[in-house]
Structures are given as structure tokens and as C-alpha cells.
Amino acid sequence: MTRRLAFICPLGALALLACGGSPSGPPAAGDSLRLQLVASGLSSPVYLSAPPGDTERLFIVEQAGRIRIVPHGQQQPLATPFLDISNRVLSGGEEGLLSVAFHPAYATNHYFYVDYTHSNAASDTVYTVIERYTVSADSNIADSATHKLILRITQPQPVSLYPNHKGGLVMFGPDGMFYIGMGDGGSGGDPQNRAQNPDSLLGKLLRIDVDGGDPYAIPTANPFKNGGGAPEIWALGLRNPWRYAFDAPSGLLYIADVGQNTWEEVDVEPMNTAGLNYGWRIMEGAHCYNPNPCSSSGLVLPAVEYDHSNGDCAVIGGFVYRGTRSPSLVGQYFYSDLCGGWLRSFTFAGGGVATRTLWTPNISLSSPTSFGQDANGELYVLSGNGTVYRIAQ
């Protein structure tokens, strides 16, 4: 299946302006947007989440290896971290404790999962580690002794040449399966072509069943379950899917894949479609990379892309807004850029992008690192300066 750069809009110049221009052009200017400060005093926050049904707390991941709890309305995190595994985490650059995912049945089994990088200095080896933990009798503190290894993936060596592209997001999908975003392992241009290699877990979106086996089982629908590649793979051809998101009401999966030198992209496809190839390193965005010229046959092309001409550098993917505080934002997928610091959104309908908006927030974003979503569907944007803001209109 090949996704073309779709743009659904009535013909005519005025209509085109109202819809925000082409998918790779500048979006239309939108109304003002309020960014409400909800947390400060954090150290390099990189992700935010909350257990299902928990409307009183925000769980914020700090890159160095801690998860902090910020009760709604308090702004400052609790003094004692929910989890502190900084002694096991290799942190810096694109490495560290990168995300947390709460089990859908967290209220009864108290399980949550983390994704972090770990270094074995003796062998000059870095691993992506996926572990499960259990909360203690105190609901604000996890029991660090309960760690259970789910998956460990060896990153390319030597470390000095491959320090980046670790992916980092773990998440339960609406299907109850556990998803892991993996970058291509780093360096430049994916020199070993790992993203296109079905036997490598790098440059992929993985999908496993953490309830059906020990430590996991392979879901029936996975494309390589019966051979032809690593059975954990759900999708391939990704460079560094730092953030992705499921939107259950629409049945869509959004993947923000960080580009190489020129193009950033957001891909949108049905979440139940297995074995999609998102193109890297054959293509960067909708453009041939290696080889050049190339064929895009069988590749998913981005729904939205943008280049680095205005100082942008790395797409920061968010979520589709499904909260209740700002009804006018419902259905908008929000995203940003690490260097650009702007806030944009688009809507997706009928197989293509319907509208694109460049928002004007009340304050400037400084190095946005991630978006987050709470149990009510409200969206947040995290800043590298240690602050977290709720998006509202």
C-alpha cells in the first residue's frame, strides 16, 4: 500500500488558503492557543503519561532515569520520585529513560513498563532495555526491586559511531498489544540499511503480547510471525520514530519519524494494517535518499512533511486531541519541532490531510521534547527547560 501526499480541499485559490496550502508547504495561520503551565522544576522531561482512569496525577519521565509525579494543580513534582533507576540508565543526547507505559489493567495488576538505554562499559555495548515494574503499597512509589526484563536489543557498535536514533516510545495500543518504537541505531544514513532488513529489530515498530507469554508472545497478526523476518516486527522502514500515537476513534496510527538532513515527516495509516514499509533509507520523507533515483512502489509516503529551510531539525510528534476542555480542538493532531519550537496541527479524513494549522501560542516554546496525554485525553507539551504546559483554547 502506498500513501500519497494527500490533500483534501475544494478547488480554488481561496479554498486552498483556507485549508492551509500543500502538505509540504506552510500551514495556515490559526487562532491563538493557550499554553497553561502545569509543572516546573523538572530535569530534562521527555515524556508524560497517566494510568488509565487516574485523573489526579501526571507521571513525567526525566531523561536521567526518574519518573516524577505531579498532582493536578500543584505544579511541583512530589519530592520522592515514583521510580528512580538512574543508576542503570545511560543518559545524554538521544539516550536515557525515554518513556513509560501503564498496563491497561494497571488498577488491578499495578504493572507499568519503561524503555531506556543501558551501557555495558566493559564491552562498549549499548542496549535498549524494556522492563516491567510494579507499584508498591504506596501508590506514589514504585517497587524498583520488581523489575522484570521484557526485551533487550543490542545497539550497533562502536558506541562512538552510533550514539543516536534509539526510538524510545513504548505504548499499549487500543488492541491491547504492546508497541515499541525502534530507531535505525544511529550514525548517518543508516549505513547498514537496518531499517529495511526484516531480520533486524532496528528501524521498526514492534508489537508484542505481554499478557500472552513470559516475557511475551507474538500476536497472530504480526507479518513475520511464521517466518520471513523477526516475528516482533509490525512495521519497518523507520529512521527514528521518537513519538507515535494511536487514535482509537478514527482507527489511525500517527508516526512522527525524524529525518536525516532535509525532511521531517508524519505518517498516518490504519492502525490494524500490518507490515507497512515507511520507506527509510530508500526515501527521506517523500524524496529519494538511497538510492537516488529510487522507486516508491510499496512504500508509505508521509501525510505531512516539512524541510529544514527555516531552522527546523527534528519533528516532535504528539497526539490527536480527544479531551473535553477545548471542544474546538477535537480531532486535531498536534506536533512540533525540537529546533523550530512552533506548534502545528492537522486533521485527517477520507485518506488524506483535510486541514493544517500553525497556532499562535501565548508563550514561546523552548526546545519542545515531547507531547503527553492524560487520562482525560487532554494534551501537554514538554519543554527541555523543565516545564510542562497544557494545550488549551
Task: Output the radius of gyration.
Answer: 20 Å
Annotation field: number of helices:
2
Overall number of structural domains: 1
How would you name the oligomeric state of the polypeptide chains in this document?
A: single chain
In the CATH hierarchy, what is the architecture at level 2? 6 Propeller
Structure summary:
The chain is mainly β and 393 residues long. It has two helices and 26 strands.
Word description of this protein:
The protein has helices spanning 13-19, 106-109; strands spanning 28-39, 45-49, 57-62, 66-71, 83-84, 97-102, 111-120, 125-135, 142-154, 170-172, 178-182, 204-208, 233-236, 243-247, 252-257, 263-270, 283-284, 287-288, 304-307, 315-320, 333-337, 343-349, 352-361, 368-373, 379-383, 388-392. The protein is an all-beta fold and 393 residues long. It contains two helices and 26 strands. The protein is globular and about 55 Å long. Strand 22 (343-349) and strand 23 (352-361) form a beta hairpin. It has a single domain, classed as TolB, C-terminal domain (Neuraminidase). 3% of the residues lie in helices and 40% in strands. Residues 1-22 have low confidence and may be disordered. The strands form six sheets. It has an eight-stranded mixed sheet with strand order 20-21-22-23-1-26-25-24. A four-stranded antiparallel sheet has the order 2-3-4-5, with no helix packed on it. A four-stranded antiparallel sheet has the order 6-7-8-9, with no helix packed on it. The two termini are 37 Å apart.
